[in-house]
Amino acid sequence: MKGSTYDGRELPEERIQEMFGPSEVGMIEQNLMNQANIANAISYYCHVYQEKHNEYVRPFIPLHDLLVDVKKAGYQIAIFTGKGRRSLDISLDQLGLNGLFDVLISGDDVTQLKPDPQGLHIIMKELGSQPQDMLMIGDSDADIEAGRRANVPSIRVDWLPSVSPKSFQYKFDDYMMTDVKELRNLLRLL
C-alpha cells in the first residue's frame, strides 16, 4: 500500500499500476481526489523522485557506453517516453545522460500516448528523418506497437530488470534483444 500525502488515502500497488499510461503529472491530475492540491502534489512528487532516484534507478553502464558510441559515430538519438518532462530531466541528469539526445519527447509533449506513434512523428519531423532512417528500441508492447504504427523498424529489449519477457503480449517479426552486446552487434550490421 502506498500512502497519499494529499488525499489521505492509501492505494495498493496493483491500483497504482492500473493508472499507468499518462505521465506522472497526468496520473496525479486524473487520480487526485483533492483537485485543489494538484500543483502541490506534483511538486512533492518531483521532489521525492529526485531525492530517491538513485535508490531505485542505477546507471546501466553498457547501455550508456553504447549510446555514447552511437553518438560519436555521428548518429542522432532521440527519446520517446511516457515519463513526464520533469522526471525525464531528473533521470537524464542523475544517470549522466544529458547532452546525448538530439530530441526528447516526453509524455507531457504529446496528446496521444503510446502505442500511438505521435511522438515518433514529432521526432521524425524534428530530425528531418523518414521511418526507414530510424530504429525504435523499446521495452514494452506500447513501444513496439508505436514503432510499427509509424512504420519504423523496432527492436524489443528484455534486459531491463523492471520488465520480464512474459510482460510482452505479442510476438514481433523485427528484432528481440536480451543483451546490450547483441544490440551493439546488430547496430554494426545495420
Automatic annotation (TrEMBL):
<dbReference type="GO" id="GO:0016787">
    <property type="term" value="F:hydrolase activity"/>
</dbReference>
<protein>
    <submittedName>
        <fullName>HAD family hydrolase</fullName>
    </submittedName>
</protein>
<dbReference type="InterPro" id="IPR050155">
    <property type="entry name" value="HAD-like_hydrolase_sf"/>
</dbReference>
<dbReference type="InterPro" id="IPR023214">
    <property type="entry name" value="HAD_sf"/>
</dbReference>
<dbReference type="InterPro" id="IPR041492">
    <property type="entry name" value="HAD_2"/>
</dbReference>
<dbReference type="InterPro" id="IPR036412">
    <property type="entry name" value="HAD-like_sf"/>
</dbReference>
<dbReference type="InterPro" id="IPR023198">
    <property type="entry name" value="PGP-like_dom2"/>
</dbReference>
<keyword id="KW-0378">Hydrolase</keyword>
<dbReference type="InterPro" id="IPR006439">
    <property type="entry name" value="HAD-SF_hydro_IA"/>
</dbReference>
<dbReference type="Pfam" id="PF13419">
    <property type="entry name" value="HAD_2"/>
</dbReference>
